[in-house]
Amino acid sequence: MNIPNLLTLVRIILSPLIVILLIQGMFGKALIAFVIAGITDGLDGFLARVLGQQTVLGAYLDPIADKALLASSFITLSVLHIIPGWLTVIVISRDFIILLGISVLSIMSIPVKIKPLFVSRVTTALQLITVLAALSSRYLPGHVDGAWLPVIYWVTALLTIVSGVGYMAQGVALINRTGKV
Prior knowledge:
By secondary structure, this protein is mainly alpha-helical. It has helices at residues 3-23, 27-50, 56-79, 85-107, 118-139, 149-178.
């Protein structure tokens, strides 16, 4: 176990804690935990590259940690009526479609190398910013201008859809290359 993988595990552990804090209305503590989780997201990949500690385990754990953090945050914030439900449906649907696509490729015995698209990295960052902005506007209502939230929501939705379409195109291309249609 190396430092980048430990940071990824911290993000996985923080995900249910954030949900608990949100459910209990402890938005300040949830915000702090989410910021820490967000920092580990950038730090684990950076340290893995700088320290030469990229591992197969890390390649699998990192997207799982991202999905756990973002899905649980979006669902909880949506249930609490802080983030719109339609945005949560888009975010969760994209992840479900990606998992479904990987499953289909696996069933078809088509090898899949897990490498996020650039737009997907931007989408993940924007989804993190969306949750951060929603939490900040809830915890610091006088200090954070909530008027920007709808813009952030729509941009996040658009990039999430573009990212999902990119992955679908990549999957279709893999299937077409193998001739297993």
